[in-house]
Specification:
alpha/beta; Rossmann fold; 9 strands; 39% helix
Amino acid sequence: MAGPVLKPQPARSVECLMALDVTPLLPVEIPGSGATIWCKAEYLHPSGSTKDRIACHILSKAVREGRLQPGAEVVEASSGSTSIAMSMVCARLGLRFRAFMPEGVSRERSVMIRAYGGEVELTPRADGIVGALEAARAWARRHGSFEPRQFENPDNAEAHRTGTAAEILRQIPQARVDAYVSGVGTGGTLVGMRLGFADAGLAPHAFAARPIAGSSGVCCDCFAAAEQCSFSGRIPGVLDGMSHLYKPEAFERLDVIEVSDEEAMRLTRELIRMGHPVGPSSGLNMAAAIEASRRLPAGAIIVTVLCDRMERYFSTELLAGWVAAPR
């Protein structure tokens, strides 16, 4: 006998999911660093990354406003986590999803998107994420698909304003934040936190984390070859010049901290060994936060984001030698 047919849930179910799914804010100390960093454990979201916030916010808003109807197609260009999050939310809302990604992204990402019922279109590696964006927009024009446009949609930052920042202020002792740290890809996290802290009358020091190529020249992953606008070939999702949301002049106090990609990878592995199953951008953020602590007065309260989970990096340089080869 056939089992019951599960019907897609209405949009409000996704909003309730996010309302209940407040991620922990954890005090993390890397041995020898002398600093305690408050880390938002965004890897605990349902699809495994902070991008769940923007996927839920953008898509459920579009459904409420009648811009998305059941069965409609959503199209996004992303090298990974956003597409995974969008495919999960589309599965919840009864929408179709199609991701455009450059060849060369880790296989795990495509598998996760397809597991949620999404389609994956791989664009030429040489064209990078810009080529994927162009292909996604051309497809959307031809087929009338909905485009979240994560790099320019202000609802991206709004998700972090009303979610990430507001949660941090409820969770952190005395609602005090002296500084916050994030890499910049779409810019939504850093911009959204600035707006959310400003809503509470705060103007903490902002630090943008930027990976730079280390001295080893090792680039097993070559994410940059796929994205074509990464600062480093080893830290995916942190991109140069792609964001239309991130405007440095809008910040009262903003510094850029450059981190060797070797150090970012080392700290990522150390975080994993400490029980935080994260990807390279989390190591980048932690490294920059530790450096920020050296520039600020002793006892400064610094917050950052542990962005995504490690399973999408099993076949990459990050975990080379840790994962047994398939038999």
